[in-house]
Amino acid sequence: MSTQCDALVIGSGIAALSYALHASRNGRKVVVVTKRDASEANTAYAQGGIASVLEPEDSFEAHIEDTLRAGAGLCRRSVVELVVREGPAAIQRLIDLGVEFDRAEGDASVEYDLTREGGHSFRRVYHAGDITGAEVMRGLLAALRGAENVEILEHHTAVDLLTVRKVEGLRTGRGHQTPAAENRCLGAYVLDDTTGQVHTFRAPVTVLATGGASKVYLYTSNPDIATGDGVAMAWRVGAEVANMEFIQFHPTCLFHPQAKSFLISEALRGEGGLLKRKDGTRFMETYHPLKELAPRDIVARAIDTELKRTGDEFVLLDMTHLDPAFLARRFPNIHETCLEFGVDMRTTPIPVVPAAHYVCGGVVTDEHGESTIPGLFAVGEVACTGLHGANRLASNSLLEGAVFGHRAATAAERYYAMTHPTATVPEWDPGSAVPSDELVVISQCWDEIRRFMWNYVGIVRSDRRLQRAQRRIATLEEEIREFYWHATVTRDLIELRNLCTVADLIVRCARQRRESRGLHYSIDYPTLEKNEPPRDTVLARRELV
Ligand code: FAD
Ligand code: SIN
Questions:
Q1: Which residue, 152, 219, 223, 226, is CA-closest to 190?
Q2: Mean pLDDT (the chain, rounded)
Q3: Which pLDDT tens digit goes with each residue over 194-230?
């Protein structure tokens, strides 16, 4: 089956839905494909909030400086400026949709209750209790479900992107000859998870909004959808990918055998939470003058160092000195969830550990969200726009998704008026693939990747650990390739293949960086490379799949 639309949007988080909303209001026919329920996205789990300048004492300059400082010399200043300056309008669009951020109580001079997080010099984080992301999703999905020209297809997983080059390669079976200037994205092959059929979607504009890839690590704050599909798909068709070594580890996830991935928001430290060793002593003052509110990479590394030094399994986040009524009111979701696991944060310090949280690198884009392949846009966590550099400032991610989703929809308008390549796209060919009776291969490979990525490519790295990881990836790639061509395609298989590609890209980027900068820390190169100007780690695949 083949479907034609103006814009094919892959994903349904804040970036995808911001794009879809704006494009549909411009009269474009938009199809959104998303691999689980539409509401299942990293966005829905966001707790802390969205950063943007509101109060008169705060300023765009201060938000810009905080973002640049966190980014450790690798942010693109022009992108930081545009995102910060367009922030208030992005927040206003959400408010206009009916998203309800917490209002200030008892202070008539300010409308909203802004919170603070690490690395921010002001309170500038809009939030909806401690479930900001769920509230944002509610507002966006409600608006889109009423839109006439938007179709949301749930349980549809994009398998591969289609480009002029790729189609030529498929047709001739001998690679491609198309010059880069004539290459164009044509759409994607998408698996309907319910029927098992792979459909062809053709569109002059394709938008990757597939979110992050932190499931490539054993311990992560991310839900299961975060398998890096967008980066892997873009990589396979030759788009540039950059800075994949910069993986942000969130310092505080709940430590409990049954609490899968539950985040304890940085906003708790923003409101006065203290990090302590199990013996009750504080340690952050020995690592950074901002103590608990130091940038996230420093806090995560400090905890990692403490855990390795003491042999303890967790450190403590102590909130017990704060007003119990305030804690229950300000953090209802975290309070309730901790209680379910037997921790009352009003009276007992919370056991916490770091976990993989956010990928700063991704598909390289320009200031409008367009990748290096014409007609292919990448917005949100999947993209590398230059906003985050080597380390993302807390609560800048939702902001980036909202700003770039909107910007990309504006920029993409020029494609609808153009003449489009007439390349005939062949229907998906399942070849000789049959349903596999050895699905254990998928879970085995998946577990292996996540464990060696955690142990060898985690918070602290070394050349030898990276080499070990690279060798394992080479073996697994071979095994997965073989399995992929013989087994009927399923979502699990697609995700495994992508996860392995993402692991490879992270390791390749990490091996190229011979310094420690931002989120990338190597014991072999513990300082900044001082003799060279800061540079991105850019990778591009020249040969065609
Ligand atoms: P997502 O919201 O992750 O959406 C990706 C979508 O793509 C999903 O719908 C997914 O199903 C779909 N998808 C993926 N692959 C495919 C495929 N192959 N085919 C079809 N669909 C696909 N950031 C902040 O700024 N503030 C916060 O307070 C904050 N808190 C966070 C708390 C947690 C627990 C987590 C995990 C993250 C948090 N972040 C926060 C980060 C932020 O939530 C994400 O970076 C952001 O939501 C990403 O938005 P997105 O639209 O790019 O992707
Ligand atoms: C948090 O609430 O700590 C997460 C904020 C973020 O990742 O930006």
A1: 152
A2: 95
A3: 999 999 999 999 999 999 999 999 999 999 999 999 9
Closest residue to atom 53 of ligand 1, CA basis: 211
Whole-number Å distance, alpha carbon 168 to ligand 1 midpoint, is 33
- Which one of 114, 263, 299 would you pick to mutate in the ligand 2 pocket, going by the greatest count of ligand atoms within 8 A of its CB? 263
Q: Which two tokens mark 257?
A: 């055998």
The token pair at 215 is 């499931």
Which ligand sits closest to the CA of 267?
Answer: 2
* Averaged pLDDT, 155-184: 90
234 lines ligand 2 (CB under 6 A): no
Q: In degrees rounded to 5, what are phi and psi of residue 310?
A: -90, -20
Q: Using a 6 Å cutoff on CB, does residue 157 contact ligand 2?
A: no
**433 CA to centre of ligand 1 in angstroms:** 32
- Evaluate whether 14 touches 43 at the Cβ level (below 8 Å): yes
- State how far Cα 354 lies from the chain centre: 17
The full set of domain ranges for the chain reads 252-356
User: Which one from 184, 269, 296, 301 is the annotated catalytic residue?
Assistant: 296
The closest-lying atom of ligand 1 relative to the alpha carbon of residue 267 is: 28
Is 296 one of the annotated active-site residues of the chain? yes
487 Cβ contact partners less than 8 Å away, ≥ 6 residues apart: 433, 434, 435, 436, 493
pLDDT for the residue 465: 96
Which atom of ligand 1 lies nearest, measured to the CA of 381?
Answer: 52
Tell me the DSSP string of 193-245: TTT--EEEEE-SEEEE-----GGGSSSBSS-TT-S-HHHHHHHHTT--EE-TT
List the one residue out of 47, 519, 53 whose CA is nearest residue 295. 519
Ligand 2: atom nearest CA of 48 is 2
Residue 545 pLDDT: 45
In DSSP terms, 199 is beta-bridged to: 190
Ligand nearest to the CA of 51: 1
109 or 315, higher pLDDT: 315
Please give the torsion angle defined by the CA atoms of residues 153, 156, 159 and 160, in that order, rounded to the nearest 10 degrees: 0
Q: What tens digit of pLDDT does each residue of 127-155 get?
A: 999 999 999 999 999 999 988 899 999 99
Phi-psi domain of 34 (left: phi exceeds 0; alpha: psi -120 through 50; beta: other): beta
Give the separation between CA 85 and CA 138, rounded to whole angstroms: 25
| Ligand closest to the CA atom of residue 398 | 1
**pLDDT exceeds 80 at position 16:** yes
Q: In this structure, which topology does domain 252-356 adopt according to CATH?
A: Flavocytochrome C3; Chain A, domain 1 (3.90.700)
Can you tell me the distance from the alpha carbon of 149 to that of 20, in angstroms, rounded to the nearest whole number? 10
Our mutation pick for probing the ligand 2 site, out of 47, 136, 271, counting the most ligand atoms within 8 A of Cβ, is 47
pLDDT surpassing 80 at residue 423: no
Q: Which residues pair with 185 in a beta bridge?
A: 163
